[in-house]
Task: inverse folding
């Protein structure tokens, strides 16, 4: 087995640990304190936001146009409509502003 | 017998409900799977290794970081640590989703955590929030297509990588931010949503500049979660009966 294979295997184990780790810690407690519950409810917005926000630092006009259209569509439409609208605006805008 | 037949029909429905919700994820992740395979081979991995990496790790950003480091011949432990750091946000996901799936048999839970990706978590949380049960069959319907397409497309990218056209013109580098923004907006009815998003956005941008990637994800996430913990519980709608 190559070194690469062992690195991939170790990376897979490390990744799985992150995917069960939080549950293993939380499940040791019999009851969840209201503040912890509030924190857990904040997880989706808190984590997913960090995957978007730093991208704004290098966003140009095409990227901003795509995001704004995507937000507007998401107020009415579903996730798929929002995503396709944003992607379409991005591709067209990049044709013109690069 | 009758009850069994009914529940059988219902589980089939649940599975396809999940599959339907997985389609945007499959579409959004396809370019990255192909791109990953192509870059992996470019950085010296074999087609089999690229395929295995997708099948065993199943985490796009961490796989990209991993192969980037393979190309630079850094120490193995550093590559593993980097993959761990990029995936660290899943600790929070697993703490959150554990409340919804704790009633599953142990093996089903073990499989469930293996396919716990960003969209998997977000969509399962949204379902739990709407008051519907997060069952294993539904969860599998959501996650399995994403996994299967991810692994196959990685392999295709590894084999046919040289044929990929201009990714900038196709907007591929910015598809995921658009998609993740959609997931964030999906939670906008939750208590404290706007302050949490603001806190995480500001903290992650500052951390991105000051500390660098991937730590900005964990730092930004902790800022948003801490805000919800620190504010008095009644702001969070906890303990309030709807």
Result:
């Amino acid at each position: 087995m190559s070194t690469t294979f062992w690195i991939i295997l170790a990376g897979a184990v490390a990744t799985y640990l992150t995917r069960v780790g939080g549950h293993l810690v939380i499940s040791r407690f019999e009851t969840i304190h209201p503040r912890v519950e509030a924190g857990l409810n904040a997880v989706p917005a808190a984590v997913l936001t960090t995957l978007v926000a730093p991208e704004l630092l290098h966003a140009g006009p095409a990227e901003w146009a795509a995001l704004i259209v995507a937000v507007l569509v998401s107020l009415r439409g579903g996730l798929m409509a929002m995503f396709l609208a944003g992607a379409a605006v991005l591709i067209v805008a990049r044709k013109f502003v690069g | 017998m009758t009850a069994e037949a009914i529940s059988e029909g219902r589980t089939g429905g649940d599975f396809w409900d999940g599959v339907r919700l997985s389609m945007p994820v499959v579409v959004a992740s396809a370019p990255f799977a192909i791109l990953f395979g192509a870059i992996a081979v470019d950085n010296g991995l074999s087609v089999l290794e690229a395929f295995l990496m997708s099948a065993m790790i199943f985490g796009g950003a961490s796989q990209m970081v991993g192969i980037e480091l393979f190309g630079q011949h850094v120490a193995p432990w550093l590559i593993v640590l980097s993959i761990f750091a990029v995936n660290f946000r899943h600790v929070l996901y697993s703490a959150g989703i554990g409340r919804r799936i704790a009633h599953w048999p142990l093996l089903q839970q073990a499989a469930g955590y293996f396919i716990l990706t960003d969209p998997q978590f977000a969509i399962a949380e949204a379902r739990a929030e709407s008051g519907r049960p997060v069952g294993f069959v539904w969860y599998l319907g959501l996650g399995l297509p994403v996994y299967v397409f991810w692994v196959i497309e990685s392999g295709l990218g590894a084999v046919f990588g040289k044929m990929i056209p201009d990714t900038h013109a196709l907007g591929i580098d910015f598809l995921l931010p658009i998609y993740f923004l959609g997931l964030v907006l999906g939670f906008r009815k939750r208590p404290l949503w706007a302050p949490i998003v603001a806190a995480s956005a500001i903290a992650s941008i500052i951390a991105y500049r000051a500390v660098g990637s991937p730590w900005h994800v964990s730092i930004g996430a902790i800022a948003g979660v801490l805000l919800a913990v620190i504010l008095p519980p009644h702001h969070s709608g906890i303990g309030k009966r709807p």
